[in-house]
User: Fold these one by one.
Assistant:
Number 1:
Amino acid sequence: MTEPLLKVEGLKKYFPITGGLLGRTKGQVKAVDDISFYVNEGETLGIVGESGCGKSTTGRMLMRLLDPTEGKVTFDGKELTSLSASEMRKARRDIQMVFQDPYASLNPRHSIEKILMEPLNVHNIGDPKERKRKVHEFLEIVGLSSYHAKRYPHQFSGGQRQRIGIARALMTNPKLIIADEPVSALDVSIQAQVLNLMQDLQRDLKLTYIFIAHDLGVVRHISDRVGVMYLGNMAELADTESLYEKPLHPYTQALLSAVPVPDPEFVREEVVIKGDVPSPANPPSGCRFHTRCPFKMDICSQEIPRLAEVEPGHSVACHLYEESRPQ
Ligand SMILES: Nc1ncnc2c1ncn2[C@@H]1O[C@H](COP(=O)(O)OP(=O)(O)OP(=O)(O)O)[C@@H](O)[C@H]1O
Ligand SMILES: [Mg+2]
């Protein structure tokens, strides 16, 4: 088997909580707390979970827009976490991000041409004439026209702006795109168009995606595998089909109960969770989900369940499946 394109091991991000007159550290927000996963070349890994569970923090650590508190990220054979700032700048050519709100991430005072040219300038790709040609080429690739180059972000619709955000991410010919809720701000009808575009681009340009979303409905179609995060942990990670047909973690089951099922013959057992997500500054002991879990056992508040494969390609971090694990 070939090595995965991206390997994440024991990744953590704790943000200090400071306060008082002297700005002393009063505690820590455990935004991401020991997660591990891999992404194979050419596939899409979906990452889902409720607001605040650490999805964006994870994405930003992979690009080292944020430095991890602990853990290792290996991309294309290089350990990113040990690269110097200038080596990391070079590596960023191969990893790009697409954001939820393209309007906030596109400078309103710059023309589209200038916005799309910037990554080429930063990475010193081509001469001015080639850069211009590339901008026009990529505008067409994402379904816009070269005459759009002279316009400004406010002259576009939300869906068009996201196409520009995608074009900007593609300018350096990256291998991996981390898309953080790329369609969450768009109308449902536009969401499908942007998702289709992303799939076409993946096929044509041989891209690898990490696709972050808060609901399981959006990622199903585009993902080969899906990881479900809860309060900084990975609760379950499986092939898309197996995750949707046979969710194992009570949290995944609850999330899926909220997604409408297209097949009326198919009756899914409904799992309803109570209460709100606890604070990541003071997460529950043991399994972080135990305070809301309808199947809670004694062990759940005492021991952290580890993410382990219980069926081929299907891993879950839950004490209910302790017996099915390889010892
Ligand atoms: N710079 C920061 N300083 C302190 N706390 C932070 C910082 N960035 C994120 N957090 C906290 O870390 C936790 C995880 O945040 P993150 O943005 O990764 O969540 P998310 O899963 O992307 O949520 P959403 O679905 O709302 O985008 C949250 O509790 C958040 O408040
Ligand atoms: Mg986020």
Number 2:
Amino acid sequence: MKKVFYLSAIIILSGFIFTACEKENEDLTKPTIVINEPHEGEAIEPGEELHFEADIADDTELSSYKIDVHNASDGHTHSEAAGILKSIAHEGDTEEFSYLETFTDAAGKKNHHIHQHIDIPENAEEGEYHLTIYVVDKTGNEAHVTRGFVIEHGE
Ligand SMILES: [Zn+2]
């Protein structure tokens, strides 16, 4: 009987130690991002909607994500290290379109499907644009993916 008690105590104790160690393990895994829409190079007309669909996931917990749409006619790129943004001068009555919004509806989840419709104004300046999505997990690990598309009037 005593033996069983000791054995149980050891099992319970080692359970505590194991749990403590687990908590000390740092979460270094970034979230994953798959953009389904728009397709690379897709053309959207001013006055229409940009249809954005993506699946994001994390091995622990997602926290928030940010959708950043901006003009890319200067040919800039987004390296994994840092995104560079440069504003571009424009003429006439069109306006360089940009969109920046942070969402928290994925907080606490491991997987989340994003489905957004972003209005492209009638006076949006035509040209190449980027849609960059930044995803942060509970620990603060960030990942981002950029998709290029074009705003232009159809023929
Ligand atoms: Zn960009």
